């Protein structure tokens, strides 16, 4: 039960209290609350005596239940037959002024008075801002009849929300919840009536008879009874059959069945569960008409599934808060892949030197509720769709699509087959067991390795260019040396030619000098000799040069 003046979703900001009752064995309740054991015994004995005083062995069981409710002040607190009681667990809110610490990374933590003063001081020192706000705090109490077992106890669930999540189908204009049956209640009643009327008309007949075919009223009743029997036999006076007319009510029954079909169709239209949406064979053959009918069903059921997802989200937030509060130590979770059904293991709150990896106790998480049909037909349709994509995709995308297609396929020994084919598709089997941080680290390492490889490739290219340049330099130096050698030989040849030419000139000059000296000497001696004599003398004397 909940606060009648609150919203139907029982939000802590609007709902003041919620409570529930369940049957508990008296021994179990006393074990849970040992300090109130004597009070529970006294309460149970008192209520049991009151029940026995008013118990009547000749009374009706329904009357006993009503009397028990009156004795127990409107609530059956005890069950004497099973020795059990029905305590009340109530949750309620009270406003409180709370301090919140806002940090630079966006996290918000409550400065709880129960924290150690040193932790409070550190939180205040590292906080970017301290904010005071009035928020509803959750408390709980437990009582059974006049015995109070627990009161004014703060909630230890890790959140200040009610532990009860309402699942509401629809909400009427007055704010009250209701489900699908209320919308089709009138049509449902009409369907039952039309069906009953049609069956009654098909099982009865109308008899038209002239007066005088029977002697008494009893004979007429017998004729009516036999005419409506499955194996009836009608006996009348001679010539009486021509004066009796028996009419079947099939025509009237068919009209009732026609109206019955309309009422059933209205139920489908109102509830959204038409034949096209539920997979039954219908007279709709056009693809466009089929899509329109399915869309109509989705429009009718959209609020229903929206409210379902809303309730599931509220439930997920409460479960997530409980997980963050309770799972503070290292823990290994088995995660089932939603596509392949394969199991993977994930370690949370992993301690290492310098911190905690996958710490789920910190932060606040959003809950996303998604649903999809889980039939084999839909999986097969998705697989065929991916295969069509493979035919039109570029080569670098095909391995990824093929991997997804094989994961959707219902093949025997699929896991072993995937382990063998994934390396051929370029997949590393170890990557599936990695979490997001490990994949990120591996990606960073791959990028770093690729960067280093590119740097080495660039360095090798630079070295190759330098070697080519040095080779060209050596070839140029060799050519230059050959050119210098040729130039040196040319200079040497030119020099020797000049020397020879100079030597020939000196020789001719010396010859003229010798000739002049010889002639001078001959003149001094009074001898006149010619050139021939000089040449002869020169030949005998030798080469003067």
Molecular structure report:
The protein contains 15 helices and 16 strands. It has helices spanning 26-32, 37-53, 61-71, 117-126, 180-183, 185-202, 217-228, 250-271, 275-278, 287-326, 376-392, 398-408, 414-425, 436-525, 531-541; strands spanning 17-21, 24-25, 78-79, 84-85, 88-102, 108-110, 129-144, 147-154, 170-171, 177-178, 205-209, 244-248, 331-336, 343-348, 350-352, 355-357. The relative contact order is 0.05. The protein is of the alpha+beta class.
- Assign a percent range to the helix content: 40-55%
Q: Give start-end ranges of low-pLDDT stretches.
A: 526-534, 540-545
Cα Rg = 56 Å
Number of helices: 15
Q: How many DSSP E strands?
A: 16
Q: Quote the average pLDDT.
A: 78
Main sheet: strands, sense, barrel? 5 strands, antiparallel
**Helix/strand class:** alpha+beta
Overall outline: elongated
The proportion of residues in beta strands is 15-25%
